[in-house]
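Worked example 2:
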Amino acid sequence: MSAAPATPPPLPATVDVLIVGAGMAGASLAAAVAPRASVLLVEAEDRPAFHATGRSAAFWTETYGGPAIQPLTSASGPALSELGVLSPRGALTIARAADVASLDAFAAKFARSGIDLRRADRGSLAALVPGLRPEWMAGIQEPSCADIDVAALHARDLADARRAGAALRTGFPVERVSREGGRWRLEGSGGAVRAAVLANAAGAWADPLAVLAGVLPAGVRPLRRTVVQLRVAPAAPVDLPLVLDVAGGFYFKPSGAGRVWLSPNDETPAYPGDAAAEELDVALAVDRFGRAVDWRVEAVERRWAGLRSFAPDRLPVYGFDPAVPSFFWCAGQGGFGIQTAPAAAALAAVLLLGEGEPPVDPAPYLVDRLR
C-alpha cells in the first residue's frame, strides 16, 4: 500500500522577498538574500531545476559568453572552487584554415583579461584530440576551463537558503499577480502570498511573469539548445578537453565510460515550456561531429534540449525595474547562468537589499539599459 503524498507546509502570509523560479538563478539569489530578509522561493514544477538548470552540460570557461560576461565568470571562479564543484577539464577552441582570422580575433578580445590563453599548432591539436581531421589547423587552449557539478551547486544553494530561513514551495505555478496595500499578492493553486519585493528569476518565463505583474517586458527570449550523448569508437579519452569550433558549429566533451556530450550549438527560438530535441538538430550535431573527428559514432544514447534565455543584447538583466521599483529582475542569464552564479547572486543581492559592495561593476547588467 503506497503512502499518501505529503501535504506541503502552509505558505507564509507575507515575506520580504518572493522569488519566482527555483533554478540556479532563483536558488542562488535566495541563498544570498535569506540571511538578511524573509524569503519565499516558488517553483511551478514539482521539483526545482527541471528546465534549463537540470539540463545543462555546464562548464566554467572564462571566455564563454564574451568579454562582457567574463567579469562575472572570473569573479565566480574562487567560490565555485571553494565549494568543490569544479573538476579540471581544459578547453580547446579550434579553427580550419579559413577561420584562423576568427581565432585571432577571439584571442584579441581577451588580450587584457589576464586569462591564460595559449596558441596551439596542428601538432598540438592532434595530440590533444586524437583523430582530429587534418583540416583543423590551429587552436587556442584555455587550461583553466573546468566541468561544473551542476546538481551539487544547485543543491548547495537550496540548502544554504533553507538554513538561512528561506521557504521553498514547488508545484506552484503563478496564476495571478496584483498589488494590494503597497505589496505584491501572488496567487496560484497552492494559495496566495504577499511580498514587499517580487523577484523575477523565472528563466524562459521572465517576460510572461512581468506581463502578469503589469510590468513592461525586458525582451528576454528563450532559445532551444540541443545536446546528445554519443557512444563512439575508439572511446573518447577521459582527459579530452572541451572542444569548441571557433565558427560556432559545435562543442563536445567526454562524459565518462568513453562517451561524448555533443551540441550543434543551436539557438532556435522557442516558447517557454518543456523543450525536446528535434531529429534535425540531432542529425546536424552528429554530422558536424563527423567533420571534426574520424571517430565512429556507434549510437546516439541520449538526446535532450534546454532553453537558454537572452535579453536582446545577450547580457543578463538585474535590478529593480525603473517603472515598478518593487519588481526585481534576475533573468536573461543565457548559457552562462551556472558559471556566473556565485558572483551574479552576490551582485543581485546587493542591488536588491541596497547593502554591501557588488563583486563587479553592475552597470552593464542593469535592466535600466533596456528601457
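The two ends are 57 Å apart (CA to CA). The chain is about 25% helix and 30% strand.
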